């Protein structure tokens, strides 16, 4: 079926990269015992988060947990955590654990940047809001793939966000082979104990450490996979679960027998294509006065023409700080994908695409973009060129999900994905190729079966047009639980955070009073993407952005 592969020359170059490297022999991940009864519950000593006045309301700490729960009295791993104390401690219910997604998202950063605005005042009054960096991420003994940042940047330098031409496919494959083998040789022990199941075990120790009999948890995107894993391992310890932007465990793990790349299995290409169609439709409805792209004609046609031109004639984008970013076809697709996460940013995306389209159609080599009008995806692309602590922190799929075993067949996988979901299918198909060169597995990972036995009702939210966690996964995810209540948010973007007062009220009633809505309930978003920005609702959560893990713009991480 997959006939197009990279060349024999690339095969020889990959073999040369792999030669002489002491690789860890893979083993089949098993469903390890659910709880490590002998693991000591850590004592949390909360203290200051430093001199930054923006962090004055938060407390920080770190604890030690077993690196390997098969040996709970052996070596330990440091877990960094932060909390925002409840505003009404006299009526405090407990601690609300959070995970912002990724994999590789920093829970500490999420809570410190969004904890004060992501939840309603009633939730803030009754719960300490807790975020922790999962093992291998951020401040929690991060897994690194190179000894130094300079070495990592040298491998990443000049790589496209995804390959389009045959030459780029060869370059990308060789680079991924280098990255994969270097990850295995630089951080083998951290990677070997890096599974979501071990993060769930860590979270249960933290639950005990804060003194909660059962877990109250909000998981976003990949965080819903962590939630499902926790529910499987500790079904009797669930108080309240909010799962927002669901990641179907079978797709991520490959436990359903699908042997395609993880980036294909997750259907992100299809989700993004559907969301882009909505972007174009909403832009057309808004008209030229509110959507710059509509000034040039039918938005769908303008975007397609732009993408086609950029394949052969990139445009230099002059940024507000004077620096220049070369916008290729791949760069534009990548930036569009991540800009679709937040409908509040769609007007700025339309401005930039319109400026690029005008320049490309006139044969101009460069165009300047005004400050405050640049899509966040392009801002991060430009900023992350020198950022470190990146690749290794988002490689959980490499050690716990099914790989294809055919790293040189990715061009064919990408071709097939592109036919199903133009532009975005090819982009997301390359996610995970690095994993093919990392024969290392966490034998304590849990990969199914996924039918769960949680007695408590679980709240599952899905946004109708979500580019990263497609809505089609929402109902199948809910059906893993005996009693899940699905709330569909009619709108756009990745997760419901800060987009719907109705959803906020539903989450609040559930977390505070354990009042679950009827299954099949719906909510609307507060505004359409191109509506004029209103004044903020009093006491309402703002729309925090779920950050893409570091390195996502320079390498194929999931961005969940």
Describe the structure.
This protein is α/β, with parallel strands linked by helices and 560 residues long. It has helices spanning 8-18, 107-114, 121-126, 149-156, 166-186, 188-192, 196-209, 222-233, 249-253, 262-265, 268-286, 299-310, 329-339, 346-361, 376-383, 396-400, 410-420, 424-429, 474-478, 501-513; strands at residues 47-48, 59-66, 76-84, 94-99, 127-132, 215-220, 238-244, 315-318, 324-327, 366-368, 458-465, 484-492, 521-524. Mean pLDDT is 88; it is low at 20-36, 380-388 and 545-556. The two termini are 29 Å apart. Helices cover 36% and strands 14% of the residues. Helix 1 packs parallel to helix 5 (166-186), helix 7 (196-209) packs across helix 8 (222-233) and helix 12 packs antiparallel against helix 13 (329-339).
């Amino acid at each position: 079926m997959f006939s197009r592969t990279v060349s024999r020359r690339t095969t020889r170059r990959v073999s040369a990269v792999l030669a002489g490297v002491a690789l860890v022999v893979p083993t089949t991940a098993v469903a390890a015992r659910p709880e490590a009864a002998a693991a000591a519950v850590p004592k949390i000593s909360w203290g200051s988060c430093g001199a930054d006045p923006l962090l004055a309301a938060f407390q920080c700490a770190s604890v030690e947990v077993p690196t390997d729960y098969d040996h709970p009295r052996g070596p330990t791993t440091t877990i960094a955590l932060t909390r925002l104390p409840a505003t009404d401690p006299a009526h405090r219910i407990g601690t609300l654990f959070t995970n912002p997604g990724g994999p590789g998202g920093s829970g500490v950063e999420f809570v410190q940047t969004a904890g004060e605005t992501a939840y309603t005042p009633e939730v803030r009054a009754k719960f300490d809001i807790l975020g922790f960096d999962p093992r291998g991420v951020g401040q929690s003994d991060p897994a690194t793939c190179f000894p130094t940042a300079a070495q990592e940047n040298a491998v990443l330098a000049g790589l496209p966000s995804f390959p389009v031409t045959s030459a780029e496919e060869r370059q990308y494959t060789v680079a991924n082979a280098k990255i994969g083998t270097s990850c295995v040789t630089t951080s083998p022990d951290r990677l070997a104990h890096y599974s979501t199941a071990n993060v769930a075990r860590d979270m249960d120790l933290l639950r005990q450490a804060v003194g909660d009999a059962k877990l109250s948890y909000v998981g976003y995107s990949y965080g819903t996979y962590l939630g499902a894993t926790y529910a499987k391992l500790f079904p009797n310890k669930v108080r309240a679960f909010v799962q927002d932007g669901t990641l179907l465990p079978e797709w991520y793990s490959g436990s359903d027998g699908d042997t395609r790349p993880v980036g294909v299995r997750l259907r992100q290409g299809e989700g993004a294509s559907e969301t882009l169609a909505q972007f174009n439709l909403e832009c057309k409805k808004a008209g030229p006065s509110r959507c710059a792209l509509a000034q040039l004609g039918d938005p769908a046609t303008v975007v397609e023409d732009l993408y086609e031109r950029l394949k052969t004639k990139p445009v230099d984008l002059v940024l507000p700080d004077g620096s220049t970013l070369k916008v290729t076809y791949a760069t534009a697709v990548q930036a569009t994908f991540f800009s679709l996460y937040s409908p509040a940013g769609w007007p700025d995306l339309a401005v930039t695409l319109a400026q690029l389209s005008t320049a490309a159609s006139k044969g101009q080599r460069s165009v300047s973009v005004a400050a405050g009008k640049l899509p966040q995806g392009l801002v991060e692309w430009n900023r992350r060129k020198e950022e470190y602590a990146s690749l290794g922190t988002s490689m959980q799929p490499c050690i716990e999900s099914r790989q294809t075993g055919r790293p040189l067949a990715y061009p064919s996988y990408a071709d097939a994905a592109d036919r199903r979901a133009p532009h975005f299918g090819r982009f997301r198909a390359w996610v995970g190729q690095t994993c093919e060169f990392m024969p290392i597995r966490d034998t304590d990972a849990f990969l199914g079966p996924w039918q769960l036995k949680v007695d408590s009702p679980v709240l599952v939210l899905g946004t109708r047009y979500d580019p990263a966690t497609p809505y089609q996964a929402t109902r199948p995810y809910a059906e893993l639980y005996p009693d899940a209540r699905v709330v569909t948010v009619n709108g756009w973007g990745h997760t419901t955070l800060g987009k719907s007062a109705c959803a906020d009220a539903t989450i609040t009633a559930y977390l505070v009073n354990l009042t679950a809505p009827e299954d099949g309930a719906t909510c609307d978003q507060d505004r359409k993407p191109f509506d004029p920005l209103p004044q903020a609702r009093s006491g309402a959560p703002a729309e925090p952005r779920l950050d893409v893990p570091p390195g996502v713009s320079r390498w194929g991480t999931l961005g969940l």
